[in-house]
Amino acid sequence: MNSAEGPLRVTSLCETGRGGVAARQAGLTTTTRQVHRTVLRAFLATGQAPHRDDLVHPEGGDLAEAFSRLDEVDLVHLDDGCVAVAYPFSGVPTGHVVRLAGGAPVHAMCALDALGIPLMTGRDGVIESADPGDGRPVRVERRGGTWYWSPEQTVILLAQTRGCGPAADCLCPAIAFHWKRERAEAYLRSHPELTGLVLDQARAVEIAEWSFGPLLAGERGLDVSPRTEVRA
């Protein structure tokens, strides 16, 4: 099993091309990659988790086979036929809500995934979340390619549990916005089951960009933008 198929970990997310979501998609066959993009576009179009039965294979092939492969490499997971996980999207509420300009609100799997949705689509948008420690609201906006953060000192805790498994179980619950670094560090200390690090805004956007920016690259009508300025 190569690094693009093994469990996602904090270390792999911090290194370009070492097993993040985009690297996993790049390792798919062309047909399975098209199915993956079909799932992502369905979330964007409706704001809702699509059901397998409502999707059409872009080449008339076997959807079951494609979904089996997507599950195997931890890109898409179904629950009774409905897409429960399709990083960066969640099929159920998570507390990370992304509202793209002109689009329906969607739920992101974690804070990094929330940053990845505007980058993946090349669109402006607003992310609404909260610090898991004290519930303080956090708002992040991408406008004209620039990021605006409220509170201004917001950071992202990138952490994981010690066990192995899908990112949805081991990483996503712990990857969250914290309204200042001290809060994130205190949260990490108070949860001995977690290991991780605190990301500043620029580093978080950088990781989100290489993890999710390429997922819909080349799609007609989408402008997946290059690296963007980060501004508090």
**CATH third-tier fold name:** Beta-Lactamase
Lateral arrangement of strands in the main beta sheet: 1-2-3-5-4-6-7-8
What's the helical proportion of residues?
25-40%
Structural class: alpha+beta
In the CATH classification, which architecture applies?
A: 2-Layer Sandwich
Radius of gyration: 17 Å
Q: Count the DSSP helices.
A: 8
- Count of spatially separate domains: 1
Largest sheet, in brief, is:
8 strands, antiparallel
CATH class equals Alpha Beta
Instruction: Report how far the terminal alpha carbons are from each other.
Output: 40 Å
Order of helices and strands: HHHHEEEEEHEEEEHEHEH
Number of strand elements: 11
Question: How would you characterize this protein structure?
Answer:
The chain is of the alpha+beta class. It has one domain (10-216): 2-Layer Sandwich (Beta-Lactamase), CATH 3.30.450.410. 31% of the residues lie in helices and 22% in strands. It has eight helices and eleven strands. It has helices at 10-13, 21-26, 30-46, 63-72, 111-121, 167-170, 181-189, 201-212, and strands at 76-79, 82-86, 89-90, 97-100, 106-108, 125-130, 137-143, 146-150, 155-161, 176-178, 194-199. The strands form two sheets. The protein has an eight-stranded antiparallel beta sheet. The chain has a three-stranded antiparallel beta sheet with strand order 10-9-11. The longest helix has 17 residues, at 30-46. It starts with 9 loop residues before the first helix and ends in a 20-residue tail after the last helix. Its EC number is 4.99.1.2. Keywords: Lyase. GO terms for molecular function: alkylmercury lyase activity. This is Alkylmercury lyase.
